[in-house]
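Weekly sync notes, structure subgroup
Attendees: PM, AL, DS (notes)

Item 1: joint prediction request from the bench team. They want all two components modeled as one assembly rather than separately. Inputs as received:
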Amino acid sequence: MQRGLLEEIKRGETVLEARGITKRFPGVVANDHIDFEIRAGEIHAVLGENGAGKTTLMNILFGLLQPDEGEIYIGGKRVKFRSPLDAIDLGIGMVHQHRKLVPAHTVIENIVLGHPRAGKILNLRRAEEEVRELAERYGFKVDLRAKVWQLSEGEKQAVEILKTLYRGAKVLILDEPTSALTPPETKKLLASIEAMAGDELAVVPFITHKLPIVLALSDRVTVLRRGKVVACLETKHATEKDLAKKMVGREVIFRIERAKVERGKPILQVENLSALSDKGFLALKGVSFSIHEGEIFGIAGISGNGQRELAEVLAGLRKAEGGKVIFDGKDITHASILERWQLGIGYIPSERVEMGSIGDFSLVENVMMNFYFDDNFSERGILNYRKMRKLTEEIVSEYGVAAPSPDIKAKNLSGGNLQRLILARVLSRRPRLVIANLPAQGLDVGATEFVRNKLVEAKKQKAGVLLISEDLDEILSLSDWVAPIYEGEFMGIIPGEEADRESVGAMMAGLHLKGDEGHEDR
Amino acid sequence: MRIGSYELKFERRVAVAGWEAAIISALAIIFALILFSIIFILDDINPLLAYREIFSYAFINPYGLPLTINRFIFLLLCTSAFIIPFRAGLWNIGMTGQLYIGALSAFAVLFAFGGKEFRAELAPGILIPLMLIAAAVGGAVIGAIAGFLKGKLNTNEIVVTMMLNFVAFWLVAHMIKEGGPFMNPGGRGESFELPPSVYAPLIMGIPFTLFLALGIAVLLYFMFAKTQIGYQIKAYGHSPAAARYAGISTVKIPLLVFIMGGIVAGLAGYHYFAAVPGVYKISRNYGYFGDLAFYGIICGLISLGNPLAAIPVALLFGGLSIGGRLVQGKLSMSFGVDYALLGVLMITLVAFQFFYRYKIVWVKTREEKRLDVGVYR
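Output from the run, pasted for the record:
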């Protein structure tokens, strides 16, 4: 093992270089002769749609996968990683999108876990001092003695970054670093990233969307499309439109025009609805609103303000603590989940992998999730798989799910394709009411545009849509009504044309500006 | 591993076809037998001879074959009883208890109709179906306890079924030992004997329960492949959260699979104690058959929860346990050879499942690749 290749590295020098990296999986070339280079002290963003090959490249750089062809050089020396351990020893650190921490342990215990110096006897005090120093230097505020389960997403991420730094990483790969963070957390993270780059560390964030962040933060950007590098440029020469075009391969329209649809009769009426969170406190504190045919009702807010609870109560997954839900004039407050599907409520959950799909099921079986109870697809308890397969083939092509066959397992789909499949499955039931919780979160530019268009299409077909999103632009451009939510309460219900960024943003932060007088009368 | 300019690599399989799985299993069995020949060789026994004895006794010999088949029926029922909850992601460790209660229930029917009387003349057309139903209901009731607790309170089903095994074991003891209502008039610590009038019908010397066991396996296969309920069980098994989202009741499914598992295990109890020629009573060593039920778990795991694949697996295990016991006596080997043989087979089969996920490929490495300056440990 040759440690210390990066010990003497100076700002601007190449720390890591990959040449001609090629990786094939059955049926796809995930990486096609990729050249990639990182210098010390730079923030080098890697952009690409879901399935563009970012994750594969990153896994190769981190030693999780071995490339079929190509070479990796660290500090100018050719290396070969047999496992992530080799990569870590050479100073490459990676923070995954999905947290890999032990929830029941404290922060410091998680950080020293697996550290070579931890050995058999833990010297937590010394480790704590060293980690605290690191944390202060880069502006991470975490209580090292807290248990990990008590932390917010942003804090957990900070723990992962600290852990990697404590292992001596000189190159820090971050997978979708901002996707699970609230705006204030994102701001803090960006400051920390800049501080790290100031210390000769190379930081490589992998990002699928949020182009403004890339523009504001990075020094250079590499764009991947379909496994190939399509551009590598200095960020100061790049524009948002240009990057999006390179990523998607065509012009992208960032704004969707609010479709004009005549408002029909009310579909959903919610009266004073409240619900408990998983931890047992009142997360939804008496909201009232109604959704009519052909309109999108947007709930704007930072996650954790009762949106998930609201969506789940409406979908029947969570008990209402108080209040009433009326659907098509019928009280469904206590209806079962299945009854709601049958009545025409379609729920698109934000937990796509855990709840919205079954990874080990084929695409056909996944689509079956919303049809197994349907008389059109079963006869006397026996399912008509042939018919289901036909429907799956249809919607897979209509919704542009990139899959070689409807028989592949859902876990082999990329995030964006999985969301397309879920959307396709729910919308092909032609629901009267669509509840979409963070439908475009974490999706690339192309898929985001697609999802939004499909929701507008549902609206045009006279469905009511409840759209829950953290993305203020998404809410403002799509919604007919905007309800900013804060700590389980609506701060008002504003007509979409009258809503502006500033006031909605302030209401999301807890300010009462306007009442909801207008909502019911119109 | 590298030989010359070729490199041996493990490559991930995307999916494994049925025939590939069959070939892998067959190779595993051959490998296990080769491995186990070491034991014979150490005992100065020609392994080929030993295996010929084992297989010919288990699968050809007119005395051995019926023993194999009876054990196979029993194992297949236990395997099915394991597989049903297994497909719902739940572990039924309680086939033992379920089959005890099944057997007790079947004997309770006899008891109620005066079957305790020596050689009582009973109507088989009524009593045999009643005994079967009783065995099924008995198994279902004790199975339902674990299913209900799992669905309603999320109690660990492994612990519950395991503990119910002890409850059932001692309940049987209470019923059949001295002073118990089902006590054999002659004492001996076993139950009263089945009146010959209600011996299970034999077809060519084989109890009809063979067709019951095979029928259940086929039915289960169909259920999982084609039906609504099978789909719901599988969905719950892969992801309870996703199943719930899709409107599948997370209370009903655990209850249902444990009731179904209990029914099948209860029938295994009927089979062994009321249908196998030469037994026809809850024997003193009933604990031995209870332990045998645990092979249902192994057969279920080896067949990856596929009820049809369980058929050959259960047949093999049944046969080898019979044949193994024979060679142990015949070739005067030490005690436990049959169990050791099953153990080796089991480990090899499980180890070979590695090849369900990976295949070995030879890759020609390019010359320059071997000139790496890089990092090797």
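Discussion: The mean pLDDT of chain A is 86.
Action: AL to compare against the crosslinking data before next sync.
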